[in-house]
Design goal:
about 325 residues; alpha/beta; 2 domains; 12 strands; 10-stranded mixed beta sheet; about 45% helix; 12 helices
Length: about 325
């Protein structure tokens, strides 16, 4: 890492009471083969001495301190606004990037046209690096988000490929992408905000490329939020993604699948109170979501047929019958 007036890359790391992960992540960044970058950590009101630790042991890291935990979207947006680099890289704190990670992301960006607006890393399971944690994100007509390749052998994902979106836990974005598409939607707070951003980019004609050489180890949920809040946010946010970005004719076409998806997750989460809180939260955000929807769909540059192909028809979750039978054994 070097300190230049305007480094080519800004690496933005949100942090919230995850002091235990900071040394592994920051030490790995210090071993990168690409050097023209700086690090911005946005602390979400930590109470575990994270800020003091960073300032003492990593004085070259810029730290922005928020007074309270305002969620992932606010944190990364704060970092993006504070940066001036051509490329913006988002990185979760519970990661260990391999030495060539940044080099491969920047190299791929420079070798591709501007419409390749963002890049997905090859995220590997920290405890078992032979397995994929995430090789690009997809989203289904059920409202389910799927980490491509999760739990599969990493060797199966050694080829570059276009994907719907990049997991914001280890992704590169062009600054021009954010200037055209906008930042992360802060109404999401946490979860699916990266899928929403990716879908908005796709509607404007941007594409996302998976870069298999850009490897990063990821703990997964190492910096997450408690499960009840996850259920509430996920329930609300999947409906926000669909309502904001999908033309009405396609919502009607896939209405049975969409409704089944809501029923499925309501049962599978087994936290009806928090699921209902999610539906109530969605209704509260509906006026603002509809205003955003008008702007997004009025600006889209791809056909409805192309939008239809962006989402998958696979639930990518165990069937209800399989879940039920497993409980009987």
């Amino acid at each position: 890492m070097i300190k230049s007036e305007t480094p080519e890359v800004s690496v933005i790391i949100p942090n919230w009471n995850t002091l235990r992960w900071l040394p592994g992540c920051l030490d790995a960044l210090n071993t990168q083969t690409f050097h023209d970058f700086h690090i911005i950590i946005v602390d979400n009101g930590s109470t575990d001495d994270s800020v003091a630790f960073i300032q003492e042991h990593y004085p070259d890291v810029d730290v922005i301190v928020l007074p309270e935990n305002r969620g992932f979207a606010v944190a990364v947006n704060t970092g993006i606004k504070a940066s001036q680099s051509e490329y913006i890289v988002l990185l979760n704190v519970d990661t260990v990037p391999r030495p060539c990670w940044l080099e491969k992301l920047v190299e791929t960006a420079e070798q591709n046209p501007p419409e390749i607006g963002f890049l997905a890393s090859k995220m590997l399971n920290l405890d078992n690096p032979d397995l994929i944690d995430d090789a690009g994100d997809s989203f289904s007509w059920y409202g389910s988000s799927w980490k491509r390749g999760k739990g599969e052998p990493a060797a199966r994902y050694n080829q570059p490929d276009e994907v719907l979106s990049a997991c914001a836990g280890a992704a590169l974005y062009r600054r021009t992408f954010f200037e055209a598409v906008g930042l992360f939607d802060e109404d999401f707070i946490s979860y699916l905000e990266d899928v929403d951003l990716g879908l908005r980019g796709q509607l404007l004609g941007y594409r996302c490329l998976y870069v298999p050489e850009a490897e990063v180890l990821h703990q997964g949920q190492g910096a997450g939020i408690p499960r009840p809040r996850y259920v509430t946010f996920s329930t609300r946010n999947r409906l926000m993604v669909l309502t904001k970005n999908i033309p009405l004719s396609l919502l009607l076409k896939h209405s049975y699948t969409l409704l089944f998806g809501q029923f499925y997750f309501f049962l599978v989460y087994k936290k009806p109170y928090y699921s209902l809180k999610g539906y109530a939260a969605f209704l509260r955000t509906l006026p603002a979501t509809l205003r955003k929807r008008r702007e997004i769909l009025n600006s889209k540059k791809i056909t409805k047929q192309a939008v239809d192909r962006l989402l998958t028809s696979d639930l990518n979750e165990p069937s209800l019958s399989k879940i039920f039978l497993s409980k009987l054994r």
